[in-house]
Structure formats: structure tokens, C-alpha cells
Amino acid sequence: ESGNAAPSQLQDSKNQGTSSEAPTTHRALLDWVQEVAELTQPARVYWVTGTEEENKALTDELVEAGTLTRLNPETFPNSFAAFSDPKDVARVEEQTFICSEKKEDAGFTNNWMDPAQMHAKLDGLFAGSMRGRTMYVIPFVMGHLEAEDPKFGVEITDSAYVVASMRIMARIGTDVLRKMEELDAFFVPALHSVGAPLAEGEADVAWPCNEEKWIVHFPEDRSIYSYGSGYGGNALLGKKCYALRIASVMARDEGWLAEHMLILKLTSPEKKDYYVSAAFPSACGKTNLALLDPTVEGWKVETLGDDITWLRFGHDGELRATNPEAGLFGVAPGTGWSTNPNAMRAIAKGNSIFTNVALTDDGGVWWEGMTDEAPAHLTDWRGNDWTPESGTPAAHPNSRFCTPIDQIDMLAEEYYSPDGVPVSAILFGGRRKTTVPLVTQARDWTSGIFMGSTLSSETTAAAAGAVGVVRRDPMAMLPFMGYDAGDYLKHWITLSGAANQDKLPGIFLVNWFRRTADGGFAWPGFGDNSRVLKWVIERLEGKADAVETPIGFVPTGDSIDLKGLDMTPADVEAAVRVDPAEWETELAGIDEWYARFGASLPEELSAKLAELKERFAAA
Ligand code: GTP
Ligand code: MN
Ligand code: MN
């Protein structure tokens, strides 16, 4: 008997034990699967192959179970909507742990618990946690299977929704497994359970999960455990857990960087290609910039990635970027035909899973900002009737679309290259109403790292607590660094210090969110950000003018191309103004932030802060 009947067949074969013959010769994987099955006690084990037929069988089952709603095949082919438990809608940062051997290796930005203590806790939680459910084994690779050193993982999960979503977000299945066998490769074991075992005869719910949630990383073992949540960032373990938290630790040990960045390709009117990566905190515009429709004449933008970038100094001394993911897991609200038509076109091709959006009466989806006017009637994300008068959001503010990346028309062909692309510029950005100019060029590489290390963003109404509070978010990696924040910054400095200094990218700080005195945005943003990208490239080419300020170089009023925009050079000057009073407050904030690092703050960065203070004092 094969150990891998189709999922629907497995549903019928109740007496199929957990010891069925597994379709691999990879000893370490077999042992781990066996061990997990013994611990979690699933009704059956299923090895995911990644085929179309398998996906069809799985999604059919999910529709029957009520987890997925099939959308209108004419408008959203092969697409589904899922509605989570209202208490399981986002990443749970307070329940996310980095369990390094030593507490100081997790650093002050992470939650930590002693690994032995955490393992004991997890063993208790996972014991019997898959009773009555199927245990799916998903071999996956982050990045290219043909990479020099492919980064394998295997997620074990008891959620078919996770299987269907992982299939979009990563390269999974039989091809990956064969390659793992061929190389007898190391893989990151990533164990996920929704934490909702079913007793004999007990009926399931549409979105099983547990009140108690734990997202745990053991950086020395390179292992991941996720319990109690089905939400993407907590449950699709290839993404934030592997490609950022565990990968950042691998990167530290192996000499590369795992970053919360988009990558885009820019082509100038002279047909010269440039690659730009950009790190902004969550919900601060990465997906929007990656899929930008340029308004500036003669410039073309293509996409390589919208959330995670792996950076390596290549043999030629250039910093090369790859996107380890295969899909988009984008914030739905605010994604619309007027702000992000490229994302909308990708979504409209189908093959997508939407989570916590609203349903239209004709079997489509809707969220705030998709169209200028809301439909007259919807079913909101909680399943209630909704009209524009309801006074509540129809879609959850953190509702998401999950779509294959190759459905993006503007996907750059280099996305498919395992060697990646050479980066010309790195942007750091956040959401700041005041203080931070539209764009500032760092005076040198280490000043750029300083900019990244002090990156900040205002909390939004969507998050608990006061609105508009400045939170420091180094390189937009605050929730994703798998080790000590000071060591992370030191790694940036030492790694780049050993690289070819002539080929280091330029670093720029951007802020699309600065306000004018009357409260409006100082800069139109979205497609017009292409005008800032043009200035960035022209600076690197030595063609654009700039003014030197204590924090770096900002554009002169007429160095930003405003053709076709209802803006004047004076408006640009206001958008890039460096206000000494605002910066006095900012420097105090940076002082406070740096004090929290203690001894682990690299001295190169405290030196940069001292220089900055001197420049303001002399100004
Ligand atoms: P994650 O996927 O969670 O990491 O977030 P992200 O960085 O991809 O954020 P996304 O692109 O989804 O942007 C989310 C929010 O930023 C939406 O509310 C957008 O409307 C807003 N936004 C994006 N770009 C701009 C811009 O240029 N100007 C302004 N004013 N708002 C923007
Ligand atoms: Mn993100
Ligand atoms: Mn995004």
C-alpha cells in the first residue's frame, strides 16, 4: 500500500495508521516525521506532492468543511475566501519567542525563554494535538531549488488551509523532496498545529485554533514550532519564521543578510537597468512600491519581490539580491484599481486565497479601498450583512490576499535567476508625519547603516495603544531579527566592511508620509514615488542636485521631476526640510533608543550619532 493516497481517499481510510510507508529515503526526515506523529497522534499522515490534482482535492475538502468559500469562477477563477476566528487575525508578537541557549543572544528586542523549559512546554502542548486530523508533511525550499546552497525546510501541519497557502507562497512538493534526498540536505524542521484535536465523532469548526498561541524559534537548532494559530504570519512557516527569523541567524553564521525588503528593477529612458531594494515596516508601503506604476516619463518599473530579500556579496563583489518567496501575501485594504492596479491585475487572474475580506453578492471579494465607492451590500468578514451605513469595516484591517507571484504582469525575468540581481540602492523608510524628509541620501555607507538602525515609524490606529507614537524599527526588522539587535547591526558593518567598497549600493532614507501644516500629505506618493526613484538613480550617476544637511543630502527644489504634477519646487523644499527643532526631539529619541542596546551597540554607530550631533550643533 502506498503511503500517499490522495487526500480525499485518505479521508475514507480511517484505519490508515501513522506508520504507513513514507515516500522518501531521507533518513533524518523520516525520523522526524515519525517522532512528530508519535507525539501529535494524527489520524493519518499525508505527504504533500504539490500537484494540481492534489490542490483541487484539498480545496474541495476545505470548501466542504466550510473553511473556504469558493468565489465566482468567472470573475475569480480557482480562488477562495477564508474567514478566521475573530481572535486569530494577525501575527502575535507578544507570543513570539527566540529561544537561544543564552538570553543575551536573543537581545532586548525579542521574547526569550530557556530552551529546555520551552521544549518541555511545547512537548506538552503538541502531545495529541493532531488527534482526529490529518498531519500534512510539506517539503519546501525558500529561494531557488537550483541555488548554490538551497535552503530547505519541511513544514508539518494539521491545517489544509496552510498547505494550500504554502503552495502559493513557496516552492513545495515532490521536486523539492527529490533534491533534498539527492543532496541528503539539511532542512529546517517547522512544526505547526492549530492546537484543536478532535475527539472521536466530534464535529470540526470552520477555523480551528487555540486561545493559547506560541510562535517559537530555536536559532541554534534552526527549528520552528508554531501552536494555536492558523493566521498566515504565524502558520505559513516558510515566510517570517524561516525566511527572516531563522534565515537571519543562518545569514549571520554564513556571511549574508536576510531582510524585510522589496526588490524592484528600474529602467531609465537610456535603457539602463538598476535594482533597488527597500525596507519599510509592515503596512508602510513595500507591496505598493514593488508594484509601482511609474508616473514619471520614460522610466519603467518591474517587480522582483515585495516582502523578503536575501542579500549576498557575490563573487564579483556586488551585493546581489534574491526573493526567497513564490507568492504575495499582501495587505488587502488600500489595494485598489487606482492605487495599485498591478496587484489588482495579478489577483484578477485567480488562483488566490483571500483571508478576512468581505464577500460581494455575486461571489466576489471586496475590501476598503478596492474601489472608490463601496458596493450597496456585502457580507462582512465576520459573516454579517453589511452596507455602507454599517459603520464598521467590511474587511478586517489586516485582511490579506495570497497570490502566485508569477501572475504579476510586471514581474522581472530576473526573478527566475538563482544568482539574483546586483543592488544599486537600498532605501529605508517609515511612516513619519514630521521630521523625516521625503528623501535623504546617506553621506556614506556607515551613515546609511546608522539611518537603518534608527529607522522609525508611527503606530497606526490599527494597533493597540496610542496613535502616532514613534517606534524604532531597525531596518524594519524589529519583529523579525532572530538574534541580538546589536549583533545584527554589527553583522551589517563587518560583512560590508569586507566587501568591495566601490560596489556598495547607495543608501537613502525615505518618508512618503510627511504632512503639511494643513494636515495633508506633503507628497502624493504611490506612482509618483517613481520621481523619487529617478532622483535616487540620478544621484548615483552624479546627475541630480542636492543640498547638504546635517543628516545627509536632500534634493534641491528643482532636482525632482515634477512634470505633470500639480506641485512646485517650493513644495519639494517643504517636503525635504530638515527642521532643527524637530531634530532636537529626534536626537533625544535616538539617544534613548541606542541606550537600550547596552554594550552590544556597535561603536561605529555611536560614533555616527556623535558626528550627527556635532553637525547640528555647528549648523
Ligand atoms: P507588509 O506586507 O505587512 O510587510 O506591509 P507592506 O510594507 O507591504 O505595506 P503595503 O504596501 O501593503 O502598504 C500598506 C499601507 O500603506 C496602505 O494603507 C497604503 O495605502 C499605504 N501606502 C503605501 N504607499 C503609500 C504612499 O506612497 N503614500 C501614502 N500616503 N500611503 C501609502
Ligand atoms: Mn512584511
Ligand atoms: Mn506587503
UniProtKB/TrEMBL annotation:
Binding locations of Mn(2+): 240, 260, 307
Chain residues that bind substrate: 91, 231-233, 282, 398-400
Residue numbers spanned by region Disordered: 1-24
InterPro entries: PEP_carboxykin_GTP_CS, PEP_carboxykinase_C, PEP_carboxykinase_GTP, PEP_carboxykinase_GTP_C, PEP_carboxykinase_GTP_N, PEP_carboxykinase_N
Record domain Phosphoenolpyruvate carboxykinase GTP-utilising N-terminal: where: 31-252
Annotated catalytic residues: 284
Pfam assignment, any one: PEPCK_N
GO cellular component: cytosol
Cofactor: binding comment: Binds 1 Mn(2+) ion per subunit.
MF terms in GO: GTP binding; manganese ion binding; phosphoenolpyruvate carboxykinase (GTP) activity
Cofactor: Mn(2+)
Binding site for GTP: 283-288, 400, 431, 526-529
EC category name: lyase
Keyword terms: Cytoplasm, Decarboxylase, Gluconeogenesis, GTP-binding, Lyase, Manganese, Metal-binding, Nucleotide-binding
Protein name: Phosphoenolpyruvate carboxykinase [GTP]
Protein species of origin: Arthrobacter caoxuetaonis
Gene this protein is translated from: pckG
